[in-house]
Amino acid sequence: MESRWRRSLLIASSLALLAGCTDAPASAPEAETKPPAGAPENELFIYTVWPAFYVKEDIFEKQIGRFIKKKFPDIKIKHVHWDNPGRQYKDLIAAGTIPDIVMDDSFLNVQRYIFDNDLQYDMRELIKKHNFDTGRLNPSMMERMKNLSKDGAIYGLPFQVADYVLFYNKDIFDKFGVPYPQNGMTYDEAYELAKRLTRVEGEITYKGYSQNPGHYMNYNQLSLSPLHQTENKAYMTTDGWKKLVDNLRRFYDIPANQFDTVEKFSQGNIAMAVAASDRIAKFYEDNKNLNFDISTVPFFGDLPDTRYQPNVYSMYVTKQSTKKDLAFRVIDYLLSDEMQIELSKEGIIGPVQTDAVKAAFGQNLPQMKGKNIEAVFYGKYAAAPPAREPGLTYYYVPTQYVFDPLIFKESKDSLTALRMTEEMATKSIMAERSK
Q: Looking at the 3D structure of the chain, how many domains does it have?
């Protein structure tokens, strides 16, 4: 099977950048390679896809670029962020400009972009050579990376995580005399609050609770995968998936609490919204008068203190890079306590979670003064699903399809919506395999 991305790579394989590359395992000596014409020996090409906010060069420079330049004054950084059109993986490959380091979402894009473009590189030899201690990193985030392969390969190291927290509008709670959410709240308790807070007053509809169904299911607290572990098919018609869907749909069955995007939380009429931690900055930018605080995401009663699976953004050294050691030295530095503290000050959660890193969280953000920062690090991550058997076709199952359109627009029961999504995904897998 060849995806369109792999075909792009094969077309570009004659270009000078790919000359001399080897598919040898990381434990074997690397073939001698030369950098592409025109690229200085000291230039390191960093390609960012996620986090999305690095599309703004000033943010990349403030959070990453200036620190690398200070630490490595002899290195020239070339930074490109994903864009559509013109700066996607396929565009870089077609131009023969393969990055040395890729930063991308470890759930959404590793299989369909890094693997399908044959960019993956097992970093275990680099980790050993540079005496990098992976034990310093959050074990659940490392588990996410190790579960990409059954043979123990480590294709990337976690860099940031967009954890989910519960944002709540204190003014709405005060208006209706409802107590604020507490760390460790269950879904049942959140549901009772949502019923009390969902009201229509004149032309204003106050929505008690909002949550993106796709995020809720992709990083679900039950550690469920939408793909079968040993067969080329989707697998969602299970008791676990039904429990997951039923748990969320009851919130949207509350009269007047129909689904609305969590992005509207900053407008002031949503009482509670589960969103990624990076929205701490975004909501404040949208509405500096928003009187909000944060709490933990709701937990299942039988899984106390278990939050979502980590939504990890990781750093990958590409197979085609001619500067792997230099790239890893930069990665090593970005994962140092020093750098992780600096990022924490900007409200960024990383894989190094020492007391010093936690204490620094949000120090550079005025909106975090007096906020419930304990919620950011509260509880434990749900385990990532185990790696599937080698050779199975990967397909990104659009789990949000269960809710939109099947439940929200077509009023399907939970099991029917899961079955229809499963069938759609399995057909797509079969179509991909038949190419």
A: 2
